[in-house]
Amino acid sequence: MLSVLENSSVAIWVGESLYAYPGLLACHIVGLATIAGIYAMRDLKLLGFFPDVDGGVFLQLNKLALCGFTINAISGFLLFISQASYLSTSVPFLSKLTCIAIAMLLSWRIQKLLQATSISAAPALIVDNTGKIMAAASLALWIGAIIAGRLIAYIF
Amino acid sequence: MWNYFASIAADSALNQWIAETYWLWPVLEIIHFIGLTLMLGGLIVVDLHMAGHLPKLKASNTHQLLPLVVLGFALNLITGVLFFYGDPGRYSINIGFQVKMVLVMIAGLNAMFYHWKVSPIMLAHGEAGTRPMLVRCTAYTSLTMWFGVLLAGRLIPYVGTG
């Protein structure tokens, strides 16, 4: 399966083209800044930072964050298939994917929480301890994804 | 100019330490990425609000995000200087780095313009109606420059010398 992906014409194009790999990395960092940036602000808000910022604004920004996720899913997949066999055994790569998968699941729960609370409590968004734990975990997972992502190039 | 800075950095004690400490470069990269996430995350909220896309937020509220934006910038400035000190010969002649620095400078001038000229206009204008063109232009310039900084920075390993 992995070798089929790796030998596909798209994977070969990504690996051999002068522009594809750096272009995809550039897209990947734009997506990263968008999704991790917006979700980091949202999580900090839930943890009690920026008390006067309306929490409901992160409901509006969720679509943009998901655009960032889509950019990274597509660029990430294309980067992956150019080195599929190597990356499938890379501990930092697998750790990064795990962090992102859990963070996205948490994000879905957090957005539900925002929907439920921001209507009645905006802008002074008050969340219970479960909400704060979810926000702290989400923040830690995005930082973990960044750390693991950078370490892909250093830990073989 | 960059050659002058490179000549100061080359063979300095800091240069030797960065070059010889094998774990330092990835740690600096991680901090640089966390810094850019904080900075861009905050700026997305502040600038999109300035451009009129987040009508729920009041102008004074977005100011609460600015310390975090400044923190992200400070982290990236410190790690960025250390990157330059660690490999001055490569950075000083790299076109990606030079473009990135020009964009950072334009973004910095734009931020000063916002602070002195645009912020009072925003406060005077209030939340009602469409934002004045100058306010929107400042917001879009900020986002464009900083995302340009990201792109230029990411391309540093792949582009040639200037």
Task: Summarize the largest interface: chains and residue counts.
Answer: A-B, 39 and 36 residues
Helix/strand-derived category of chain A reads mainly alpha
| Oligomeric organization of the protein chains | heterodimer
Report the span from N to C terminus of chain A.
22 Å
Radius of gyration of chain B: 18 Å
The count of DSSP E runs of length 2 or more, i.e. the number of strands of chain B, is: 0
> Which structural class fits the helix and strand makeup of chain B?
mainly alpha
Distance between the termini of chain B: 13 Å
Strand percentage of chain A lies at under 5%
Helix share bin of chain A:
over 70%
Report on the structure:
The complex is a heterodimer of chains A (156) and B (162). Chain A is built from seven helices and no strands. In chain A, α2 crosses α4 (57-81), α3 (20-46) runs antiparallel to α4 (57-81) and α3 packs antiparallel against α7. Chain A has helices at 2-6, 9-16, 20-46, 57-81, 84-87, 91-121, 129-151. Chain B has helices spanning 2-9, 13-20, 24-50, 59-62, 66-86, 88-92, 95-125, 133-154. In chain B, 78% of the residues lie in helices and 0% in strands. Chain B has one domain (2-154). With 162 residues, chain B is mostly helical. The interface between A and B is large, with 39 and 36 residues.
